[in-house]
Amino acid sequence: MRAGRFITLEGIEGAGKSTVARIVCDWLEARSIPVRLTREPGGTPLAERVRRVVLERGDEGLSPVTETLLMFSARGIHVENLIRPSLARGEWVVCDRFTDATRAYQGSGRGVDAQWIEGLASAVHRDLVPDCTLLLDLPPTVGLARARRRSGLAADRFEAEAEAFFHKVRAGYLELARREPHRIRVIDAAAELVGVERQVVHVLEGLLEP
After folding, report:
1. Could you tell me which of 134, 140, 189 has the C-alpha nearest to residue 169?
2. What would the mean pLDDT of 83-107 be, rounded to a whole number?
3. What is the 3-state secondary structure (H, E, C) of the chain?
4. Could you report the per-residue pLDDT of 17-59, keeping only the tens digit for each?
5. Considering the domain boundaries, does residue 39 fall inside one?
6. How many domains does the chain have?
7. Which end of the chain is less congested by CB atoms within 10 angstroms, N or C?
């Protein structure tokens, strides 16, 4: 049995990852490709419990280092209990965020040491690297307006961050894409939905080429 492919979706809040995830899954399913949709932090019952700790806005704060450790704790659970088994069964895994999110949010956004993040990544998921990452890029002003219309008063800890934070996160993502252009494909997420879908399908067609 051929191992599955690992596709990740990245971008700031409001970039449309949930919509694109559905586009990707529908496109694969239409071609009889088995697909598993998941997300980070979370993806399994135990990892979802860690997600709640990370995202809830409460009286206790989380330092950038603690936040990073929680992200990798959830990721370790997710990788071992869902991602690796699904890939081994020949399924394509479509994941809303993965380690690039930690590099951008905690690394570029929070200032956590990049080498330390890479050390954690190596320890937690070793040789597991996405086959393709769709980076949904748009200006933070646009993304935050979308996200806050959706969440309102229920905004999580990240959605409540100041716009300046997301400029740093976006810059971090774009630097990652510059360094790994063959893996990370930048999608203009500010375009109309039909334009976004056209860009995504173009990338997917490339993954199926022999």
Report:
1. 140
2. 97
3. CCCCCEEEEECCCCCCHHHHHHHHHHHHHHCCCCEEEEECCCCCHHHHHHHHHHHCCCCCCCCHHHHHHHHHHHHHHHHHHHHHHHHHCCCEEEEECCHHHHHHHHHHHCCCCHHHHHHHHHHHHCCCCCCEEEEEECCHHHHHHHHHHHHHHHCCCCCCCCHHHHHHHHHHHHHHHHHCCCCEEEEECCCCHHHHHHHHHHHHHHHHCC
4. 999 999 999 999 999 999 999 999 999 999 999 999 998 887 7
5. yes
6. 1
7. C
Asked whether residue 1 is domain-assigned, the answer is no
Within a 10 A sphere around the Cβ of 67, how many other Cβ atoms? 19
Q: Which amino acid is present at 145?
A: A
Residues 6+ apart with CB under 8 A from 86: 4, 36, 93
CATH number at residue 63: 3.40.50.300
